[in-house]
Amino acid sequence: METVEIQIEPRDSGSKGKVKELRRQGKLPGVFYGPKAQAVPLELDRKEFLSRVADLEGSRLIRIKSASPLLADRVALVKEMQFHPVTGEVVHADFYEVDLTAKIRVKVPLHFVGKAEGVVRGGILQPVVREVEVECLPMDIPEYFNVEVSALDIGHSLHITDLPMREGVVAVYETNFTLVTVVPPTVEEAPAAEAAPAVVVEGAEAPAAAPEEKKKEESSES
Questions:
Q1: What CATH number has the domain bearing residue 20?
Q2: 82 and 160 share a domain?
Q3: Are 113 and 148 in contact, with CB atoms under 8 Å apart?
Q4: How confident is the model over 56-96, as pLDDT tens digits?
Q5: Per DSSP, what are the bridge partners of residue 61?
Q6: Same structural domain, 78 and 145
Q7: How far apart are CA 179 and CA 33, in angstroms?
Q8: Owning domain of residue 130
Q9: In whole angstroms, how far apart are CA 149 and each of 12, 23, 48, 133, 142?
């Protein structure tokens, strides 16, 4: 996996007012931390982050360019992004330092490719998961996995053990869970026909009474 270089500098941690002012200046606040790294508050150019990192799919390795020896040439993953509840804009980013010589666990997105045979026959392709967790060295992190679905017929599924893994990448799972399946087409049942209301036609004879009803009528007359 290629690394993305971004200019990031440390900042003084302060009040919410200082953070808001930072955002007004076009900066994005963040924090850098790791298992062997002291937490460092950050600031970086918001536009650069959005164009080079935020919209990319999957996990991306960030190589930090900085004038600070605390951050220069450190490699990190974007661990988490916080979003504004109304506008949806990124308002904060967490950078987690990684050791390029140690395996880590990350989630990798799935791309479902091809047209399933069952879909051609009227079925519906139903993805069950959109990403899977793998363990590997940071530089071996796959950008995504292609899941070929062309051979799937109605009622057939692909599971995690069916997903090819390249050398050095191992899927993490406890059970052989389903990735995608093809379900039968949904057929709506026709509504039951309602009984038509009786229509009384003037001059028409009333229908003959049932035997039990006829006996009741005779007994009442006597």
A1: 2.40.240.10
A2: no
A3: yes
A4: 777 889 999 999 998 999 999 998 899 989 998 999 999 99
A5: 3, 77
A6: no
A7: 33
A8: 104-183
A9: 51, 45, 37, 20, 20
Burial status of residue 93 (CB atoms within 10 A of its CB: 0-12, 13-18, 19 or more): buried
Burial 62-81 (b: 16+ CB within 10 A, else e): bebebeeeebeebbbbbbee
Predicted TM-score of the model (pTM): 0.73
Q: What is the DSSP string of 96-129?
A: EE--TTS-EEEEEEEEEES--HHHHTT-EEEES-
Residue 218: CB partners within 8 Å, gap ≥ 6?
none
CA 49 to CA 154: how far, in whole Å?
43
Helices then strands, each counted (H, E), the chain:
4, 13
- Please give the DSSP secondary-structure letter assigned to residue 3: E
Phi and psi dihedrals of 41, rounded to 5?
Answer: -65, 140
Q: Look at residue 153 and give its three-state secondary structure.
A: coil
pLDDT confidence of residue 204:
44
Give the Å distances, CA to CA, from 9 to 29, 64, 78: 10, 9, 16
Average pLDDT over all residues of the chain:
85
d(CA 107, CA 103): 13
